Amino acid sequence: MRPDELINAAKQALENSYSPYSHFCVGAAILCSDGSVYTGCNIENASYGATICAERAAVCRAVCDGHTDFVAIAIVSGDGGTCTPCGICRQTLYEFAPGLAVICPDDHGGTLEFELDELLPHGFGPKRLEP
Ligand code: THU
């Protein structure tokens, strides 16, 4: 799947964003190694700390369906600007795929691509807990 196709899937997910408090809509689409794609949107809560970001919503759907082998994630925000994952989402993603490709729209109609390692350098992951 091309980066722009994954971005389009994230844009579709954005439509269901539940963000009555921040009004900041986010959509994410995560690509698995078998080609399947899981989407998520941010889901806010009156108890603000219970909010879940779009990236983690997508990961939860994928893992609940038995997918943990991730290749790429696209993230879009309703304002059209670049939205890189927050720290908690970086950690969640790092658990499964430190080399994950993180794809975001840039400000000129193109795409930006990062490697998760680059966004979360020296991250703490499951390897550290191996006996
Ligand atoms: N948000 C995401 O869904 N993903 C991010 O990477 C950044 C932030 C959401 C959480 C909250 O609903 C809103 O954006 C404002 O922080």
Architecture overview:
- Helices cover 28% and strands 23% of the residues.
- The mean pLDDT is 97.
- The structure holds tetrahydrodeoxyuridine.
- The site of tetrahydrodeoxyuridine has 14 residues, from α2.
Structural class: alpha+beta
Reported for the largest beta sheet, the result is:
5 strands, mixed
Q: First CA to last CA: what distance?
A: 37 Å
Radius of gyration: 14 Å
How do the helices and strands follow one another from N- to C-terminus?
HEEHEHEEH
Shape: globular
Count of separate DSSP helical elements: 4
Rounded average pLDDT? 97
- Name the hetero compounds present: tetrahydrodeoxyuridine
Approximately how much helix is present in the residues?
A: 25-40%
Strand order of the largest sheet: 2-1-3-4-5
Low-confidence stretches: none
User: How much of the polypeptide forms β-strand, as a percent range?
Assistant: 15-25%
Number of strands: 5
